[in-house]
Amino acid sequence: MTGALLIAGLLLALLWLRQPLLVILLAVAAVVHLVWGKGQLDYILEDMWVSLDKELILSIPMFLLCGGVMTKGSTARRLIGVAQALTRPLPGGLAVACVLSCGIFAAISGSSIVTMLAIGSVMYPAMRAAGYDNRYALGVVMAGGSLGIIIPPSIPLILYGLVTETSIVDLFIAGVGPGLLILAVFAMHAMVVNRKVPTQPFDLALLLRSLREGMWALLMPAILLGGIYSGYFSALEAAAVALVYALVIETCVHREMKPGQFYEVVLEASKLGGTLFPLLAVALSLNLVLTEHRVPLALVEAMKGWIDSPLLFMLLVNALLLAVGCLMTSGEAILILGPILAPLAAAYGVDKVLFGIIMIVNLEVGFLTPPVGLNLLVAMGAFKQKFGLLVRAAVPFILMMLGCLALLAWQPWISMALVR
């Protein structure tokens, strides 16, 4: 009891002092080691080393590099060309093309921000030039980008699998149904809202030319996801294949990526990794100590004494995750709450894979909610728009995503039907 009060007091003090998450996690890990662990702070370093000594962690920088290579190259532009040729005759065809492009690119990059910037830098000016409402164009680009964390391969799904010891492949497979559901809802909304925007006739020659130019880019998600779902690739092998494929295509086939640009990609990925990996190391080491001393089990027993209804538990957890998504990035929330909430969900009969998908979709909403919605903040700089306008633009898409979240919790088969 004394240790729990000490941790709670320390957390409140550090939050009040506005300390970075790494400092908070290190302080909490130190207290946990002193109170429940072996009483020596140098064991933190040992646990951090053990925690990071996992091959699967290598998939994260590889997917980051892969997304960066395709963003610097022409993959995004070629995917957009195919999507535009397919959706020309549809009401709101350009907006539907934006959603489809985001969905396909998300299946390669695994990152929300990379997806939004790669597709949005082309589609936002195109929609504005075609007469689309500014607020809608901003909203669909930001919301489409958020598909990057639910459509596999997804870096947040990898993080969740690491901290909860859940199969990454099962998480990837379970993410397909929810990703397609949200993509379909966004596309139907685009057709309804933009039904008065002039359409263009279907052009078979344009479609064939776009398919020829985008053939190698379209093969990427087919090879990547097909290898994972067939069991031919592990998540780590898929990341390595994706990176090599992207490099070969952009440098040898498309020939639109220079060595200097690859240096920039490596630099940007290193910066992201330098931010993420210290947090991951501390969070995993903390998880080791808590699991060793059966803290999650004690928490499960205490929670069951207060809440005996699985439905009430899920309602409270969803409310918590939506609130957390407004204040933390998805990675931070997963590292802190994943090891705590996943055992609780399992105790109430919720499969860890399903709970992972529900958690990720909740945090996906957080990409569009102030004050720490990353897509809002990045879009403000990328598209030179006011923050208030971006928030208003995101509201309809937030409501749609909440509706999809409710459907996923009500009908688990949408996520779990393909999981073996």
Pick out its properties.
420 residues; mainly alpha
Question: Could you explain how this protein is built, in words?
Answer:
The chain has helices at 2-16, 21-35, 42-52, 59-72, 75-87, 93-109, 112-129, 134-145, 155-164, 168-193, 204-229, 235-253, 259-292, 295-306, 310-325, 330-347, 352-366, 374-382, 387-410, 413-416. The chain has 20 helices and no strands. It has one domain (2-416). It is globular. Helix 8 (134-145) packs across helix 19 (387-410). The model has no long low-confidence stretch (mean pLDDT 81). With 420 residues, the chain is mostly helical. 78% of the residues lie in helices and 0% in strands. 50% of the residues are buried.
Short characterization:
Helices cover 78% and strands 0% of the residues. It has helices at residues 2-16, 21-35, 42-52, 59-72, 75-87, 93-109, 112-129, 134-145, 155-164, 168-193, 204-229, 235-253, 259-292, 295-306, 310-325, 330-347, 352-366, 374-382, 387-410, 413-416. The longest helix has 34 residues, at 259-292.
